[in-house]
Design a protein that fits this description.
Keywords: Carboxypeptidase, Cell membrane, Cell shape, Cell wall biogenesis/degradation, Glycosyltransferase, Hydrolase, Membrane, Multifunctional enzyme, Peptidoglycan synthesis, Protease, Transferase, Transmembrane, Transmembrane helix. It is found in: Cell membrane. Residues 407-653 form the Penicillin-binding protein transpeptidase domain. The chain crosses the membrane at residues 21-41, 86-111. With 749 residues, this protein is an alpha+beta fold. It folds into 3 domains: 2-119, no CATH class; 136-371, Penicillin binding protein transpeptidase fold (Orthogonal Bundle); 389-735, Beta-lactamase. The chain contains 25 helices and 16 strands. The strands form 5 sheets. The chain has a 5-stranded mixed beta sheet. The protein has a 5-stranded antiparallel beta sheet with strand order 5-4-14-13-12, with helices on both faces. Strands 6-7 form a two-stranded antiparallel ribbon. 43% of the residues are buried.
Length: 749
């Protein structure tokens, strides 16, 4: 044993450090223990086999000895106490040597596994250098390059002592309050918080990371969230703290973490966002920059200006709460209106690209997207995208006198759910709020939500000829004034068939229909179609739900409309066809075939109503932009109170030949700050409808309009009101004789 003493001396500090680390790792779920156990078993099979043989012999001899004594006890009632003493001494003798052997075996296993673990860790010296990765390319469906994502192109290291204190204070206050007091891992402030997230909320392995941990994670480790990676992160952080002092670690962190786009490090971030060197930034600017590394895309002032402002205020408050700045400085910084430099990146379909980038980062992590060399083939058709951008800009120019400042377009192929075009705002590079993506934002849909109400009504037994009372009505609302819905035209129309109530977008019949089917039932039905954001609908929205009282975003709204267009088959909106890794291997292919959520009959009748130009002529006239004749295009408009939102949503219907000309176009116009548009804006004539029509004309081939609409087998036709044919779900026609009551208004034919 003497010859091993020098080695034991060398390993003393090594083992003490490892024991400290593994003691802290006990709290990282039971998975951490399993990971270490598997490592130890793989390194010491022979030791465990010897231990097993020892245990078998030990227990066999012990049982035999105890059995003999007990047999004597049975044979001789007056056995002396010394027999008990003999058993006890025998057991203690054997247990003592068993424990010594067992502990020695564990020590050998621990030392061996610890050495293997340390040998497999990345070299800490890499923190002082940088290894460039492969860029990820995002293409449209035809192979046109839209954008290249890369990690390292713009990085300028700076010395910590050249930076204003505001930057270091803001970073420490935001990312790691105990930075100068821990040894790389913050047990109370970080790891216990991660434990709570893992156990209480059952999320994937969460952060709880110090600045040192973030540095090694960003520079040395892969991004996956596993216990093994977390163990390495903690060990490397503690080793880094022994090799570098705090200021060196902070300097490397500020020079290496991502701040969004191509800006890596505080110097390039300062130049990208403010057009100045990091040494020249103000307190307000430093607080903004310090808030970015946690989620650069989420807090981008170009994509989410409101979230960026909230984050900056959080950082300023942390600095004030931790006594880095005074109350006077805090209040003054809150009043500063930051001015950002206009982005200069070369990018096509930018709103769509950053939507895809966010999806990729959520699935694969930021580092793999920036360094992994992926080739991402999206669903976007850049030809359609460019047409949408041009049409939107031209039409918004003509609407400038009506206080219409912005617009958005989403084009999908409902049969597959593919996004063909996404225009999130008028101009992505507008310095004020152009990067804001309206297609992913929550907005009130107005009357464009009514088709969902009436689809549910048909499922519940109503028909397109069911008469609904369109007269003044009042609903009691305890604690508030009575609810009295009014129609868009300020008039009432008496008894109206469901077909005409929906086609002309009358509000009173829609409210009465929702009362019949139930608010919560409609919310659950909308969820089946694809709208997942309506919780506690009865209490939050009430009967106004059918008039657009609940917000939706275009993505989920397109899924819901697509389900109706697909005659009951839900295909969630998707943006990516396939992904290849850097050597051309396919690592993802979209295989979503959709699933049926309702039978074909009801959505077919709704689509027929929305394509009926005669039925809607009472409100829109016979020659509105919605009219494509021949019943092949279904469309619905929507306008919210005070004309803050104006929508047109329409799609091509399934045909007998199924020629794959299916397209869904959603158009919104309004203002990002939610200010009202001019009252002269007329739903269906001005606003979103002309944009929608021009895009349909550009996208849909002329041959499509020679097709015949597909009619499901479960639908029958019968003469009804005004001598017109009406469609019924088979079995409901007997309850709709179209006799007796007569509608109050006759449409223009």
């Amino acid at each position: 044993m003497i010859q091993f003493l020098p080695m034991m001396g060398i390993l003393r500090d090594f083992c003490i450090n490892l024991l400290t680390v593994f003691a802290r790792l006990i709290i990282l779920l039971g998975e951490g223990v399993l990971f270490l156990f598997r490592t130890m078993v793989n390194s010491a099979q022979s030791v465990l086999m010897s231990t097993k043989q020892f245990l078998v012999g030990f227990y066999t001899n012990s049982i035999q000895s105890v059995s003999r004594i007990l047999w004597n006890v049975v044979k001789k009632k007056n056995v002396k106490k010394r027999h008990v003493s003999v058993v006890f001494l025998l057991l203690m003798y054997r247990v003592r040597y068993f424990l010594i052997g067992f502990m020695f075996a564990l020590l050998l296993i621990f030392v061996k596994s610890s050495i293997d673990f340390i040998n497999n860790l990345p070299n800490l010296s890499l923190l002082e250098t940088y290894q460039s990765g492969l860029s990820t390319h995002i293409y449209d469906r035809n192979g046109k390059l839209l954008y290249e994502i890369f990690r390292e192109q713009n990085r300028t290291p700076v010395k910590l002592d050249t930076l204003p204190k505001y930057i270091t204070w803001a970073t420490i206050a935001t990312e790691d309050k105990n930075f100068y007091y821990h040894s790389g891992v913050s047990l109370v402030g970080g790891v216990l918080r991660a434990l709570r997230e893992n156990i209480v909320t059952k999320n994937k392995l969460q952060g709880g990371s110090t600045i040192t941990q973030q540095l090694v994670k960003s520079s040395l480790l892969t991004p996956e969230r596993t216990v093994e990676r977390k163990v390495k992160e903690i060990v490397l952080a503690m080793m880094a703290e022994r090799k570098y002092n705090k200021d060196q670690i902070l300097e490397m962190y500020l020079n290496q973490v991502p701040y969004g786009g191509t800006a890596w490090g505080i110097e390039e971030a300062s130049k990208m966002y403010f057009g100045k060197h990091a040494k020249d930034v103000s307190l307000a600017q430093a607080a903004f920059l310090a808030g970015l590394p946690q989620a650069p895309s989420l807090y981008s002032p170009y994509i989410n200006p409101h979230a960026a402002l909230v984050r900056q205020h959080e950082v300023l408050y942390s600095m004030y709460a931790d006594n880095y700045i005074t109350r006077v400085q805090y209040d003054a910084a809150l009043k500063v209106k930051l001015k950002f430099k206009k982005p200069q990146e070369t990018i096509l379909a930018p709103h769509f690209v950053f939507y895809v980038k966010q999806l990729l980062e959520e699935e694969y992590g930021q580092r793999r997207i920036q360094e992994g060399g992926l080739n991402v083939y999206t669903t976007l058709d850049y030809h359609i995208q460019k047409e949408a951008e041009n049409i939107l800009n031209a039409e918004l120019d003509s609407l400038s006198g009506l206080n219409v400042g912005n617009g958005a377009i989403l084009v999908t192929r409902p049969s597959t759910g593919e996004i063909l075009a996404m225009v999130g705002s008028r101009s992505y590079f507008d310095i004020h709020d152009g990067a804001f993506n309206v297609t992913t934002a929550m907005r009130q849909p107005g009357s464009s939500i009514k088709p969902i109400t009436y689809t549910l009504a048909l499922k519940d037994g109503m028909t397109a000829s069911t008469l609904i009372n369109d007269n003044p009505i009042s609903f009691e609302n305890p604690g508030s004034p009575p609810y009295r819905p009014v129609n868009y035209d300020g008039k009432y129309h008496g008894l109206v068939p469901l077909r005409y109530a929906l086609a002309n977008s009358y509000n009173v019949p829609a409210v009465l229909t929702l009362r019949q089917v139930g608010v919560d039932n409609m919310a659950r039905f909308a969820n089946k179609l694809g709208i997942t954001s309506w919780d506690n609908a009865s209490n939050r929205y009430g009967l106004s739900l059918t008039l657009g009282g609940a917000e939706v975003n275009m993505i989920e709204f397109a899924t819901a409309y697509g389900t109706i267009r697909n005659l009951g088959i839900r295909k969630d909106v998707m943006a990516i066809q396939k992904i290849e890794n850097s050597i051309g291997e396919t690592i993802y292919t979209n295989t979503d075939n959709g699933y049926r959520v309702m039978r074909e009959d009801e959505p077919f009748i709704i689509a027929d109503i929305l394509s009926d130009n005669i039925a809607r002529s009472l409100a829109f006239g016979p020659n509105s932009p919605l009219n494509f004749g021949d019943g092949l295009v279904s469309v619905k408009t929507g306008t919210t109170d005070e004309k803050r939102d104006n929508w047109t949503v329409g799609y091509t219907r399934p045909t007998i030949t199924n020629n794959h000309s299916d397209v869904l176009v959603m158009v919104w116009v309004g203002n990002n700050n939610n200010t009202p548009m001019n009252p002269a804006l007329t739903s269906g004539i001005t606003g979103a409808a002309p944009i929608w029509r021009k895009l349909i004309e550009q996208i849909v081939s002329k041959s499509f309009f020679t097709e015949k609409v597909y009619v499901p087998e479960g639908v029958i036709k019968k003469k009804c009101y005004f001598g017109r044919d009406e469609y019924f779900v088979q079995g409901t026609q007997s309850s709709s004789s179209c006799a007796g009551y007569t509608p109050s208004t006759t449409p223009k034919t």
